[in-house]
Write a structure and sequence with these properties.
Layout (H helix, E strand, L loop, with lengths): L7 E4 L5 H12 L3 E6 L3 H9 L4 E5 L5 H11 L4 E4 L14 H30 L2 E6 L3 H4 L5 H21 L4 E8 L13 H10 L8 H11 L11 E4 L6
Parallel strand pairs: 1-2, 1-4, 2-3, 4-5, 5-6, 6-7
Helix pairs in contact: 1-8, 3-4, 4-6
Amino acid sequence: MPDLDGKTALVTGGGKGIGRAISVALAEMGARVVVNYRSDKAAAEETAASLPNAIAHKADVGDPAQVEAMVKALGRVDVLVNNAGAVRDKLLIQMSPPDWEDLIRTDLLSAFATTKAAIMSGMMRARWGRIVNISSIVGLTGNAGQSNYAAAKAGLIGFTKSIAREYGSRNITCNAVAPGYVRTELTSGSLTDEMVGELVKLTPIKREGTAEDVAAMVAFLCSERAGFITGQVIAVDGGLSL
């Protein structure tokens, strides 16, 4: 469905896992996809090469100066998906200041930097834009050993609602998607197969989530059909957080 023909979509951390699935979904909608990466050049370039009219672009989105340079090089951003993230799981009493600061920088400061740059790049002038922030059900519920991650993902939710209020009059929507557990390179090793099995038992839809499940919701929120939806947090978790 070519909802995004002629539009540029920036997907941060777009080369692997959920980011890759989102990049694919937006390309199928006709967008020129910019697959952002910080360190895994090979994955980003492989993803971009597999898509029509896509490029890979290196930038540490936790660094506002690098974000500004990237968006300036792109010309404008019409669709922004803040997907870049990291995990540094530890109990609070074992967590160091860098464990906290680096996680907040990657998962939350990045959204500030990219959203500001994207809005200023042309969304306001065009009076159209789509911003989707990838949060987590951990941002809604909290989780032992993830106080830094939960704080960042909860912060994204408050950020989402504020941006929706600030720029709705410009026809710029901003929503958050909160996935449940999805098996990716980022999450591998955080749960054993037995633990995942227990999660599935607690999930009303009795299966694991996939990156494509998340990407389908992101694609909808970026479409014209979602033009009257903003400031919302949509859990894609099979009902786990009910």
